[in-house]
Write a structure and sequence with these properties.
Length: 573
């Protein structure tokens, strides 16, 4: 029997265990859509290709299993921002592009672009399927590359003539590998001597810290991180913007390794004698491994699961090639050994400083409330968490909104707040991902409440993706921090320009809540602090996709204040 190339592609994806595809459907992709329908793989259509990409990314981050973003050639450029966001978080999304005809490549074919070259810097693998007989091979290669070593997105361009052409049903099945079902990615096992050198260094430390990056999440090792911190008495921190590894209520978790969003980390890292960065990068968020974040006296050690990651951590004093899960298991084995004699004083000192910081933030918030101006964004972020329980998801999106929400998450967690999960933009801090990520959380956990705290600028960047929530009958609640502009940027401008005027940062008074009502959802405007929590509960209880539009005041966050403290410096160095 003969089948179209698109059908072969769909069957190859089914063979890899793909269970979800996100798209803005187009004619170039119809044979694949037909094949996906036959294979029983659900396809969610979205109003924009970038939304399709963010939905695929969000779903992949939650499930840790690849999903597919399918776009046509004219939509490929729209999907590039989502590709970039997935690349920053190393999310193994498979981007599939229906592309111009291979037969006339280079001749100006209909909608012809060099999508392979455009995607190459933002993916681990970008290739064009040059022969329909090799479709299984290309899918197998892309899938394995996406998950191996340091994971990340991949891209396959499928020319329209291959997509529509007919091939034998068995095309590609008579070549190795005969079994193309997905297996577990290879894990890096440490050289015993190298592992012993690192553990000996840690055993001699009196003030060690563990700093987790997203490599821990992709290796499924967050429970090992919790166990190592708790059993050995080592304070644990999370690299900012990366996947949340531990709940803030965790016994060993202290907060972000960020001196502005979590100032006690300045003490912890500054006083440490050994800092173990596991599954992370010494990039701008870690000050490239340099003082003053990491003092010269601190022994900086990076443990990564791939050689590629280690190459990015050249600045470390010592490195170890080892899967994060394997390494954390080895750390836990130190408990009870004669070599391990670290007491609990160091961890308790960090806990004390955390409690003091929370008390200081609460006092500052109380002093700032004059009862007249808009609601403080920290007050909004704290109130938004209060109705959520252990089965619920919190998503944050924005600039200033993101920073204040991170602070609120840590404060609430220190008092026992527990959530099912937290999602936020990754390393590129891309605005507009919030609604898509919230919808991804709802689709994967339909019985959970999903609440998004979004800045007004972030919602304007990607808010119309909320139509997909209505279309899929997957209600989410969107709380908008409405301060009338891009506050992070305008506050930088005030300090940089030396006056109160703004350029290209202010919005008109936008009634976001009425947009939701017009689409068939629930909407409320909140103007005073007393109205906030009742409105949040009504929105969650409505059973509809809902908006709580909150008038806030533009309070500068600690991180923005720090990065704009000198007019002669850029906002980000």
């Amino acid at each position: 029997m003969k089948v179209r190339g698109g059908m072969l592609l769909a069957r190859a994806l089914r063979e890899k265990g793909i269970t979800q595809v996100f798209t803005l459907s187009g004619g170039f992709c119809n044979p694949l859509l037909e094949g996906l329908m036959e294979c029983g793989i659900p396809v969610i259509n979205t109003p924009h290709e970038q939304i399709a990409g963010h939905l695929a990314d969000g779903t992949t981050r939650i499930t840790r299993q690849p999903t597919v973003c399918l776009v046509g050639p004219e939509g490929f450029a729209n999907a590039v921002p989502a590709m970039m966001e997935a690349w920053g978080e190393r999310s193994p999304v498979i981007f599939v592009t229906g592309s111009s005809t291979l037969k006339r490549e280079g001749s100006g074919g209909f909608k012809e672009i060099n999508d392979v070259a455009i995607a190459a810097p933002l993916t681990k693998y970008s290739a064009s399927v040059t022969n329909g007989e090799r479709i299984l091979e290309f899918v197998d290669r892309a899938y394995k590359i996406a998950l191996s070593g340091y994971p990340g997105p991949v891209h396959l361009s499928v020319p329209v003539d291959i997509m529509f052409s007919s091939f034998d049903e068995t095309a590609g099945q008579l070549e190795r590998p005969f079994d193309r079902t997905p297996g577990s990615p290879a894990r890096a096992w440490p050289c015993p001597e190298d592992l012993a050198r690192i553990t000996d260094r840690l055993c001699a430390a009196r003030r060690p810290v563990l700093i987790g990056g997203h490599g821990i999440w992709w290796s499924g090792a967050e429970r090992g991180l919790e166990n190592a911190g708790r059993r050995l008495g080592i304070p644990v921190f999370n690299i900012p913007y990366h996947q949340k590894l531990l709940g803030e209520e965790s016994e060993s978790y202290m907060g972000l390794a960020d001196i502005h969003q979590y100032p006690p980390s300045k003490f912890a890292i500054g006083e440490s004698d050994v800092a173990l960065v596991i599954g992370g990068r010494l990039d701008n968020q870690m000050n490239f491994g340099n003082p003053p974040l990491f003092p010269e006296s601190t022994r900086l050690i990076c443990v990564n699961g791939s050689a590629e990651e280690l190459e990015l951590n050249r600045a470390a004093d010592e490195t170890l090639l080892c899967d994060p899960g394997v390494f954390l298991d080895a750390l836990c084995e130190l408990e009870g050994s004669d070599a391990w004699n670290l007491g609990r004083d160091w961890t308790e000192e960090n806990r004390t400083r955390r409690r003091q910081w929370v008390q200081e933030m609460e006092a500052d918030l109380a002093r700032s409330d004059d009862g007249k101006t808009g609601i403080h964004p920290l007050q909004l972020a704290l109130a938004a968490q209060s109705p959520l329980g252990t089965d619920d998801w919190l998503v944050i999106d924005g600039g200033n909104t993101h920073f204040w929400s991170e602070i609120a998450i840590n404060m609430a967690g220190s008092k026992g707040q527990q959530l099912k999960g937290i999602l936020h933009p990754g390393a590129f801090s891309m605005l507009g991902v919030g609604v898509s990520f919230a919808l991804a959380a709802k689709l994967t956990h339909p019985d959970s409440h999903v609440l998004l705290i979004s800045g007004d600028g972030a919602f304007l960047s990607g808010g119309l993706s909320v139509e997909a929530a209505f279309q899929e009958n997957a209600p989410i609640t969107v709380v908008i921090d409405n301060n009338g502009g891009l506050t992070t940027i305008s506050q930088q401008q005030e300090r940089l320009f030396g006056h109160a005027r703004h350029v290209a940062t202010d919005f008109r008074d936008i009634p976001f809540h009425t947009l939701f009502e017009g689409l068939g959802g629930h909407g409320e405007l909140v103007e005073t602090a007393g109205e906030l929590e009742p409105a949040l509960r009504r929105a969650l209880d409505s059973g509809k996709t809902a908006c709580v539009n909150v008038r806030t005041r533009g309070v500068i966050s600690p991180i923005v204040l720090a990065t704009t403290s000198k007019r002669d410096k850029a906002s980000i160095e």
